Amino acid sequence: MVDRKTNRVITLEEYIIQAQNKFPGATGELSQLLRDIGLAAKIISREVNKAGITNILGEDGSTNVHGESVKKLDLFADRQLISALNRSEITCMVISEENDGIVELDNDGGKYIVYLDPLDGSSNIDVNVSIGSIFSIYMRKKPGSDELSEDDALQPGVKQVAAGYVLYGSSTLMAYTTGLGVSLFTLDPSIGEFILSDTDVKIPDHGTIYSVNEGSYHSWDKGLKQYVKYCQVEDPATKRPYKARYIGSMVADVHRTLITGGIFIYPNSSQYPNGKLRLMYECNPLSFLIEQAGGMAIDCEGRIMEINPESIHQRTPIFIGSKQNVLKVKEFLDEYAPESINS
Ligand code: AHM
Ligand code: MG
């Protein structure tokens, strides 16, 4: 996107500063934090792109807090993001998928708390399929108090002050929101800068793609089974049958949903009674972005961002995307709720 006044492109750094200048009282700390994440994202992107060459691919032999094997790039991304956030001393703690408890940073008086999924979709790393980093930013509940604890970080998604993701795909892009719409930036590798590519992105109200791991069909509740059948039935009036698309990287699947509309689902099932995806660093940030774009995100009952978290790594089912698609799946979930195999 080109600045109409100057007729030149706008970098992420410039855009963040311009946005900050619209708020005369702003301290600039949140802007700095977003710039820190942007810097780490560039370093991670470089490493993701040359992963095959440098033999960084593959598992490092350890498991993370969820018992999943950790790939080397997960650890690299985790370290880069945490050290970028540590540098400007604005953030007091980080909670990351790769770390069991809270990670206290050097400035324990910092007023921000950042949740991270440093490299989401890591099972796709070895096969060159898109992966992403997700971040979610909160103000600390009790600024200035001596002890940092998980309780400071346990806040519902509606309290997020900013959230975003970086998608390492055919190009690397960053999407973020501070609650004033969604902005998109594309990394130009030749100059090493994220360039503004779109502002105030809106998700279509209705989409024709459904995205869910259908291999797990037999472990789903009846309502979801019936909804997926509904997606497959021909009805020109509602543009059905819908197309099925599933990458297996939430960032990539949700990004496609943001741009083309439709729905992404990771449900509860007999295998995952509370769903698989993590509330605080996967579902809340992506819900914030999709809501800011005019879409919806729910668990089986209500809005994802209104869930009061009980633990930093808790999981939730998620149904996220275009308003009409999410409302339709909710109708099915409600109708068959009494027959749910997991209730
Ligand atoms: P990860 O954080 O370990 O990479 O797992 C999360 C990923 C999501 O990106 C994706 O939507 C989901 O796991 C895919 O799971 P499944 O293979 O069960 O469909
Ligand atoms: Mg993840």
TrEMBL record:
UniProt remark on cofactor binding: Binds 2 magnesium ions per subunit.
Binding site for Mg(2+) 1: E97, D117, L119
Family annotation (CDD domains): FBPase (cd00354)
EC nos: 3.1.3.11
Predominant place of localization: cytoplasm
Catalytic activity: beta-D-fructose 1,6-bisphosphate + H2O = beta-D-fructose 6-phosphate + phosphate
Keyword Metal-binding: yes
Enzyme class: hydrolase
Gene3D superfamilies, alphabetized: 3.40.190.80, Fructose-1,6-Bisphosphatase, subunit A, domain 1
Keywords noted in UniProt: Carbohydrate metabolism, Cytoplasm, Hydrolase, Magnesium, Metal-binding
Record-listed substrate binding positions: D120, G121, S122, S123, N213, Y246, K276
Superkingdom field: Bacteria
Cofactor needs: Mg(2+)
Ranges where the Fructose-1-6-bisphosphatase class 1 C-terminal domain occurs: 203-333
Keyword DNA repair attached: no
Domain Fructose-1-6-bisphosphatase class I N-terminal: 10-198
Binding locations of Mg(2+) 2: D117, D120, E282
GO molecular function: fructose 1,6-bisphosphate 1-phosphatase activity
Pathway given in the UniProt record: Carbohydrate biosynthesis
Similarity field: Belongs to the FBPase class 1 family.
Quaternary structure and interacting proteins, as annotated: Homotetramer.
Protein name: Fructose-1,6-bisphosphatase class 1
Gene this chain is encoded by: fbp
